[in-house]
Amino acid sequence: MNKPVPVPTDNSRPFWDGLREHEVRIQQCDECQHWTFYPRRHCPQCFSDQLTWKTIAGTGTLYSYTLSRVPTAQEFADEVPQKLAVVQLDEGPRLNSTLKFLDEADIEIGMRLKPVFEQRQDMVLLQFTGADTPIPETENVPEEAQPSEPEASDAPKKQIPCNDIDALRSLISEEFGPWSNVVEVTQELIDQFAELSGDDYWIHTDVEKAKKQSPFGGTIAQGALVQVLQSRFHIPQDYEVTGFNNMVNYGSDKLRFPSPVPAGAKIHMRSRVKAVEASASGTRITLEMHTHVVGQERPSVINDIVVQYM
Amino acid sequence: MGLKGNAAIVGAAQYKPEKYATAPRAFHVDQVAELTRMALADAGLEAGDLNGLAVNGPWFNEASTFVPATVAEYLGTELSFAEVVDLGGAGSVAMAWRAAAAIELGLADVVVCVIPQRMAPMAPDADPMAMMAAMRYGGHSTAYGAPEAEFDIPYGHMAQNTGYAMIAQRYASEYGYDARAMAKIAVDQRTNACANPQAMFYGQPITVDDVLNSKLVADPLHVLEIVMPVAGGAAFVVASREVAARLERRPAWITGCGEHLATKSPTYAKNVLATPIGPASAKAFAMAGVKPSDVHLASVYDCYTITVLLTLEDAGFCPKGEGMRFVADNDLTYKGSFPLNTHGGQLSFGQAGTAGGMSQVIEAVQQIAGQAGERQLARCDTAYVSGTGGVMSEQTAIILQGD
Description:
The complex is a heterodimer of chains A (310) and B (403).
Chain A: H1 13-20, E1 24-29, E2 35-36, E3 51-56, E4 60-68, E5 82-89, E6 94-98, E7 112-120, E8 123-130, E9 158-161, H2 165-169, E10 183-184, H3 187-197, H4 202-205, H5 207-213, H6 223-228, E11 239-242, E12 247-256, E13 266-279, E14 282-293, E15 301-309
Parallel strand pairs in A: 9-11
Antiparallel strand pairs in A: 1-2, 1-3, 4-5, 4-7, 5-6, 7-8, 10-13, 12-15, 13-14, 14-15
Chain B: E1 7-14, H1 28-43, E2 52-56, H2 67-75, E3 81-85, H3 91-104, E4 110-117, H4 128-134, H5 147-151, H6 160-175, H7 179-193, H8 208-213, E5 216-218, E6 221-222, E7 232-240, H9 241-245, E8 252-261, H10 277-288, E9 297-299, H11 305-314, H12 323-329, H13 345-349, H14 356-369, E10 382-389, E11 394-401
């Protein structure tokens, strides 16, 4: 998802080189012994230009943090709530980072932290976790990255005849049902859809230009593509509509694309029964289907789809 | 040393805050010209009286540099003092004292301070996507070598919301946190906005529960504790004692000022809870020869509720760590024991970008002049006005006084 990657300078290169070797290196002033972060050419305490790079343990304490429940930029939507932290290294300097492998309830200002070395493209970022928190071996593979099939339920499904309006109406709920399986919206899929539909606007297809000019930090999927991918989702339901000869997609009462889906994003869907209506031509069930980028609160597609049973 | 109190704010103009999507667009030079004309008229001055300018520099639409000369040329005015201010939300207050200093030095005698913040018309060939991309990280530089491009943005540290949220979290860990008291700041200011027809949220009172039930954006900040960005813009006119003497309005003399900044990111502040408004306010009060207890109106920059709390404490209106109790114990409305942001504050008036702080200056001027309508204070001889830029990055305070 094209998260921003730091670009080292002559000033900072030893820091980033150190992280690649899973070492934390910062500068100390030869004259006043003040430790400095971020890297620079002078000591901000005494203005001396005699600084020496030193390897430190990288441990520290949590000075402050927040859980951002709205992505600070689209590229970070998959992390919501983002666990943004200010870490005070044991040597004194503070730095901005993010917390890993910690539940919200386990985060406390003043807690001890140790470094986590996180690969991002060809760079390694310095993140942190609790001093006693185990670091999973598959640290670089986020949990949601593994597409999951919902577990097949052995429980018998409730069978509802399509002409039993009252029984169908009992399914109407304000609450959404369980999440579907996860589907990855790859650039390849976006390119194929561009060819098929003719919607090949650069923000969908020109990866290099989008990296520089897209407000989303990269290419995004066509809204229509994300809409039709709803056919790829399977949602475990505890009911089944029966007794019809034919079932058709009658159309949509409402279709919205409230937030973009960046290329490479994992998406999933959930739905609820919104309305049930008997008509001369059959029974119409309106399903409110919401497709989200995994972990993101704001849906990417809202589709009130009407299914007609006849 | 310091200001002698020989310059005063004598007129002002402010666009009514509007939603960006539906607000009129105009070139910044045209907004500057219109606001200047309106502010001079409000003061009872004419085009030929103007000889000084303070204008915000960043993101000025028609000039990437040489902003004052561009503006002077467009206005058709000769200037003997020109200043560009780049202090974010602290800019409005910063302009006021710079104008006063220039006047006391004899460089100019009528200075307009102006910040246009409506959007400019889009060029026919403009790519809206590219424009959105340029604004993607707000005030965070993506330039090669910019510390924040290298050490903040890759981690997702780029929004004002999360910076202020982390300050609030740190405050909570050191002094405790009363979410209802914090919400009360927004509620009392909304009561004030309901007495100000110009405010964005006029006619929409809220309760403490409304604030606490509003969407949690970044712990502990709810959406009703965060300003709403709006299109707008404002100007005020600072004039010398000689000019002010021939005008009808009661002048708001600029009798004290202070400014302080050390870091752009609060992460690198020595103590994130000892904010720059502390030393800035101490200097302003000392220069004016008044104390916090002499203040009739606190016009406190309020991008977030936490900004107000820390300003009340660090400016000396209450002891450190007791801000929440102070807020809970006082009625902060125009009818109350401690009138705060009687125009509604930016939280309820709306934040027109870096012109947001203009609303705090202009409210103080109107209260001193007795022109605040329904929300007029019975007595307003001394007002404290603060400005805050970035994430408590740069802060400025002035004292305004009526005769």
